[in-house]
Amino acid sequence: MTTDGLERRKPTIRDVAAEAGVSRGTVSRVINGGHWVSPASREAVEKAIESTGYYANHHARSLATGRANSIAFLLTEPTQLLFDDPTFSLLLRGAAEAVSKRHQTLVLLVAGTDEERRNVAHFVGARHVDGVLLISSHEEDPMLETLIDSGIPTVACGLPLGHQGEIPTVSVDEIGSARTAVHHLLDQGRSRIAMIAGPADTPGGKYRLVGYREELGDAFDERLVEAGDYSTASGTAAMERLLERAPDIDAVFAASDRMASGAINALRRHGRDVPGDVAVVGFDDSGLAERMEPPLTTMRQPFDEISEQMVELLSQIVAGRSPESLTLPAPLIKRATA
C-alpha cells in the first residue's frame, strides 16, 4: 500500500497493519508501549506508521485505557541544576528518546522547593501521568514518600536512601566503581589518596565513599576525606581544606567530574602538577571530563542506558508487571590525569 490511497482520509490502524504485514493487535501493542512484540515487528510497524502518516488519537486512547500515555521526568533539585549539571540533561535526553520510541510523551517536573513539591504531588496524584522517573533523591526529601503513598508507578535513578526495596531502581555499581577508581590510583603507586565525597544524603555521596573506604582498608585515613555538593566550586573548596590539612596528598578521587575539575583548579593554585604531583580521578564522564586540560580519568556512567532501562521498568509496572531493579557497571575511562 502507498500513501496515495490515503490522501482523502485519515489513515487507521488497519492501514498501518496492512503496510507492515502484521495484525492490528500487533500495531496496537506497539502504539501502547511495545510489550510482547518482536523487534522485527516493532520496526516494521514504526516504519509503516511513518509511511502512512498515521497519528494515534491519544485522547481517545486515554479514555479507553484509563492512561495518560505520558510519564514524568521528576528532578528533585533546584531548577538551575538541570542546566548546570550535565548529568541531568543527559538523563533527560535519554529519557525523551526512550519515551518517544514508545509513542508517549515525557513531562518535565521540577520539585526543588516546598511549593514545587506540593504542585507535583497534586499533578501526579490527579494521574496526569502514568508514572514517574525519579532522577534524584535525598534521604530526608519527602517527595519520594509522597510518590509511594500516592501509588503512582515510580522508578528511581540510584538507590533512594531510606526507601531501598520499596520501588524499582536503576543505578550504577556505586561501591564497586569507587573501588575500581581507588584501585587504579593504588596501581599507579599513589599512597596518600584523598577523596572529595558527595552529599551524604545522596546515594552517590554515601556509597562511593563506602567503596573508597573499603578499597583502602587499613590505609583509610578520615583526615583525607572532604565533602562537596557535586559542584565545581565545592570541589575547589574541599581541595583547599585537604591541602591545608594534608599537604602530602598524591592522589584524589572525586565523586563527580565537576568536583574533580574544581580540585584541579585548587591544585594548580598551589603549584601542584596534575598528574605529576597529584593524580586525579572523577566520576560521571558526562562530557566535561574529555574537554578538560589535561583530560580527566573518570568512571563512566552509561546515562543513555540508565534512561532507557528506567523507562522500560516503568513501562512494565504500568502494564501490571513487577520488574526487578537493575545495577549497571561504570567502567574506568583512562585519560591523562591518572
State the shape.
Answer: elongated
Gyration radius over CA: 23 Å
Major sheet details: 6 strands, parallel
- Proportion of helical residues: 40-55%
Distance between the termini: 59 Å
User: Total number of β-strand segments?
Assistant: 12
**Largest sheet: spatial strand order:** 2-1-3-4-5-11
Briefly note the structural class of the backbone: alpha/beta
The CATH topology of the largest domain, please? Rossmann fold
In the predicted model, the low-confidence regions spanning at least 5 consecutive residues are 1-7, 58-64
- Provide the CATH top-level class of the largest domain: Alpha Beta
CATH homologous superfamily annotation of the largest domain: Response regulator
Element pattern in H and E: HHHHEHHEHEHEEHEHEHEHEHEHEE
What is the average per-residue confidence, as pLDDT, rounded to a whole number?
89
Question: Would you identify the CATH architecture of the largest domain?
Answer: 3-Layer(aba) Sandwich
Strand fraction band? 5-15%
Tally of domains: 3
Summed up, the helix count is 14
Question: How would you describe this protein?
Answer:
The chain has 338 residues and is of the alpha/beta class. It folds into 3 domains: 54 residues, 434 Repressor (Amino-terminal Domain) (Orthogonal Bundle), CATH 1.10.260.40; 127 residues, Rossmann fold (3-Layer(aba) Sandwich), CATH 3.40.50; 127 residues, 3-Layer(aba) Sandwich (Rossmann fold). The protein contains 14 helices and 12 strands. The chain has a 6-stranded parallel sheet with strand order 2-1-3-4-5-11, with helices on both faces. α12 links the parallel β8 and β9. α11 packs across α12. The longest helix is centred in the N-terminal third of the chain and has 16 residues. It starts with 12 loop residues before the first helix and ends in a 5-residue tail after the last strand.
